Amino acid sequence: MEITHERFAGVVGYLSTFANRHTPIMFTPVNDTQVIASVNEDGIYAEYAFEPSSALVQRFATRLDVLKQIAAVTDGGMVQYTHGSQAVFSLESMGGTRSTRSDWWIPFVDYTDFAGRPEFEHEGRIDWDGSFARWLQIAKQSTLSADSQGCLDCVLIDTRIVNSSEDASGNKKPQCKRFIVSTDRHVMQVYQDTVEDTGRKGSVLIEGRHVPKVVATCESGSRVEIRVGLNHFSVQCGRRSAVFNRRTGIFPKWREVYKQVMRDEPAGEVVVDRHYLGAAVRQAGVAGDAIRITTHDDGLTIASAFDDCRSAVDVEVPHYGSFGPITIRNSYLKQITSHWPADSLSIESRSSRQPIVVRSPQEKRFTSMYQLMEETSVNQSTETRSRADAACV
């Protein structure tokens, strides 16, 4: 079988997301398709299936670190592999008018314990377009941070049938709402969109540590198909697919929280460029994790205080709207300004007992909620000093 070196390196890189250097990598024909697959110590199965071909090699297994050495060669060209008493990988590349050929005789490893692809009856199915990996990654990055202790480290993928809509001809078509939800009980991210109902629906929890693996499976940007069974779920995108053990457990009642917060009109709102806001937060955040934001005609005052150290930054940030002073964790603001999917964002303040809501004027499908801190968390540095004189002492 012959493939380009670039494609070979991509396949090895994909399997590296799942496996460690000693994990057996299986080359096996399935019907008329060559498949390269791995099963890691957590029982996660990943595979890459090539186009149907008559040039198939018989089943064998080798170590991932051997394949990574071949993939690391930067000469490009074509990779050929054959299988006899040993597997031989050959890389042939052209440099100007000169052809170079390199051969690797790679060792076999025992594959008698290779479990193969888990087979399961699927009770649910979720289809998504090529944006799935992007939104899943944003939801994971914006919550479930490494310093969150005792958080529920998983992301919920969910669907729900909603009222039918009428098309131009007056025909009613059922619709399906799709959700990606993550929370660490202080921060909640909700992505939602509405698509035509095709009868395919389901719900699954993806463990936070497995999100990079799911993203890697969807990296090609093609349509994503998730099949959900009793103990497993699979992700298929193009020629990449993976089967995971299904996480069981109770996800927080996020719908109740979401509806309770969103049913009230915001008491104040500020629309601001996230890059300007991020620069201001980095300046003011040197004194502590509690950040107090106050709006005024010329921009924003961002203040922080910790013990005897106080800082305040006046920023002439282009914005419109206003709200009363709010106090929020510095780490939350860094998440907003680092991972937000649009350049501008809207910060909505409701009451001191409710989280702030962050949305984007350009991207209505994604909503973030951040729990506020008690007002006493920040010493009132701007009240004891003028804004011009406030500094870290």
Description:
- With 393 residues, the chain is of the alpha+beta class.
- Helices cover 18% and strands 42% of the residues.
- It contains 8 helices and 25 strands.
- The chain has helices spanning 5-16, 64-71, 132-142, 211-217, 254-262, 274-284, 330-339, 381-384, and strands spanning 2-4, 24-30, 33-39, 45-49, 60-63, 78-83, 87-95, 98-106, 122-128, 154-166, 172-183, 187-196, 203-207, 224-229, 232-237, 240-245, 268-273, 290-296, 299-306, 309-315, 319-322, 326-329, 344-349, 356-359, 366-370.
- The protein has a 9-stranded antiparallel β-sheet.
- A hairpin with a 5-residue loop joins β10 (154-166) and β11.
- α1 (5-16) packs antiparallel against α2 and α3 (132-142) packs antiparallel against α4.
- It starts with a strand and ends in a 9-residue tail after the last helix.
- Mean pLDDT is 80; it is low at 146-151 and 376-393.
| Structure annotation, total helices | 8
Helix amount, in percent?
10-25%
Question: How many individual β-strands?
Answer: 25
Q: In percent terms, what proportion of residues is strand?
A: 35-45%
Average pLDDT, all residues: 80
What class do helices, strands and sheet pairing give?
A: alpha+beta
Placed side by side, the strands forming the largest sheet appear as 13-10-11-12-25-24-23-17-21
Biggest sheet statistics: 9 strands, antiparallel
Radius of gyration: 26 Å
- Give the CA-CA distance, first to last residue: 69 Å
Overall form: globular
Low-confidence residue ranges: 146-151, 376-393
